[in-house]
Design brief:
Layout (H helix, E strand, L loop, with lengths): L2 E3 L2 H15 L6 E4 L3 H13 L11 E8 L3 H5 L4 E8 L10 E7 L3 E3 L5
Parallel strand pairs: 1-6, 2-3, 3-4, 4-5
Helix pairs in contact: 1-2
C-alpha cells in the first residue's frame, strides 16, 4: 500500500483551518480519540481555548486525525466530530456534525507523531 508522509507544517496549517471550521460551534471542551486524536486535540484545545476532557460528553467536540473505516465515528455518532482526513471508503452514520478537511484515497497516511 502506498504511504503519504504528513508533516508538522501541514498539521499546523490544517489545524488552523479545522479550528476555523469548528469555532462557530458552542463547545464546552474537546476530547481526542486515543491515540491519533490526542495531538490534534491538544492543538485544537489551544486554538479554540477549550479544555481537554478525558471522555466525550454533551457539548464536547470529539477529534481524531482520520476517519478510516468509519468504525470509530460510528461508535461516537452522537457527538460532533472533527478530523483532518476522511478516507474515501469510510462508512459511517452520524447523528451530528462531522467536520473533515481532506477527502483522501486508501493510501496510508504517516503522521509526524508516528515517527
Amino acid at each position: 500500500m502506498d504511504k503519504v508522509i504528513y508533516t508538522w507544517k501541514e498539521f499546523e496549517k490544517d489545524t488552523l483551518a479545522l479550528a476555523y471550521l469548528c469555532e462557530g460551534g458552542e463547545y464546552e471542551a474537546i476530547f481526542g480519540v486515543p491515540r491519533g486524536g490526542c495531538c490534534l486535540a491538544v492543538r485544537m484545545s489551544s486554538l479554540l481555548r477549550l479544555p481537554l476532557v478525558a471522555r466525550p460528553d454533551t457539548g464536547v467536540l470529539v477529534v481524531d486525525e482520520v476517519i478510516d473505516s468509519g468504525a470509530t465515528r460510528n461508535g461516537l455518532r452522537i457527538y460532533n466530530f472533527a478530523c483532518l482526513h476522511k478516507k474515501c471508503n469510510a462508512q459511517y452514520i452520524a447523528h451530528t456534525m462531522t467536520y473533515s478537511l481532506h477527502n483522501v484515497g486508501p493510501e496510508w497516511i504517516v503522521y509526524p507523531w508516528e515517527g
